[in-house]
Design a protein that fits this description.
Helix content: over 70%
CATH superfamily of the largest domain: Tetratricopeptide repeat domain
Radius of gyration: 24 Å
Largest sheet: none
Number of helices: 14
CATH class of the largest domain: Mainly Alpha
Distance between the termini: 90 Å
Order of helices and strands: HHHHHHHHHHHHHH
Low-confidence stretches: 1-22
Strand content: under 5%
Length: 278
């Protein structure tokens, strides 16, 4: 303080405070806008969520949660495009290509937002996990696995460690590391028994290893749970039952698959691969 001794007292305070880092923006207004964005996203109002996240960022450019939320909006938009292509109607050709261009754009924008969030807060586990989800959707399991591993290093800012571990197991599965995939998925189920995603994915590991009974048990658990509603589980349950030689059970799985979303690509697979059934 020696160099400030000749300054008036109020100027000493100004100089000292001026040397401290201050938020560049308005944290309170940014937080308020973020709360509005979160509520809108929970209601499925993507336009409002996006607009409010933008305002939260405008008020405070270092709001890592706002970037993460805006990335989530873009992931939800991507999921909507995927549903249009593969579930509501199994699109092919020019129509599908046009929509896949939109899908790629949404995912690229989401990755940019999640990357910004992790650059602002390297301990932001949820943003790392979301980066992993995007990488998985972009068919890059190697990068996805790296992001999920980083997320699990920061559980204090991770919404669901068990879900992230299930995602990590899926990344291992797509790298053909079935041993590590099973390990991660079993651990995920240990912490959250009955989790739909982990249960289905563990079934896929067993199916890939041709352990038909164990695979069918996992798929059956998913199809029997109304909260899961997995088309893919019905498809693979049908395949597992066919491999077991259990025709009646395979027919039930096939019909369930087709009934859930008749125009979907998965239902088309169920029809094709189940055509030899009575």
């Amino acid at each position: 303080m020696a160099k400030y001794t000749r300054l008036p007292a109020f100027l000493v305070i100004v100089v000292v405070l001026g040397g401290c880092p201050q938020p560049q923006g308005d944290p309170k207004k940014s937080a308020n806008r973020l709360d509005i964005a979160k509520d809108a996203l929970s209601r499925g109002d993507l336009d409002t969520a996006d607009a409010e996240a933008n305002k939260a960022i405008a008020y405070l450019a270092t709001n890592d949660e706002a970037y993460n939320l805006r990335g989530l909006v873009r992931v939800v938009r991507a999921a909507g495009v995927t549903r249009l292509i593969e579930v509501d109607d199994c699109l092919t050709g020019v129509d599908a290509e046009a929509m896949r261009t939109d899908l790629d754009a949404h995912l690229a924008a989401a990755e940019k937002d999640f990357a910004k969030a992790t650059s602002l807060a390297p301990d932001y586990g949820e943003a790392w996990s979301n980066r992993g989800v995007v990488a998985s959707l972009q068919d890059d399991p190697e990068r996805a696995g790296e992001y999920f591993a980083r997320a699990l290093e920061h559980p204090s800012r991770l919404d669901s460690p068990s879900l992230t571990r299930a995602h990590l197991g899926w990344a291992h599965f797509h790298r053909d590391d079935h041993v590590q995939a099973a390990k991660e998925l079993l651990q995920a189920l240990q912490f959250q028994p009955g989790q739909c995603i982990a249960t289905y994915r563990l079934g896929r590991v067993y199916f890939a290893r041709e352990e038909w009974e164990k695979a069918a048990e996992q798929f059956q658990g998913v199809t029997d749970d109304p909260a899961c509603g997995s088309l893919e589980a019905s498809l693979y349950l049908m395949k597992a039952r066919i491999a077991q030689g259990l025709t009646e059970e395979a027919i039930v799985a096939r019909d369930t698959c087709i009934r859930m979303a008749p125009k979907s690509c998965v239902a088309a697979q169920c029809r094709t691969e189940g055509a030899r059934l009575p």
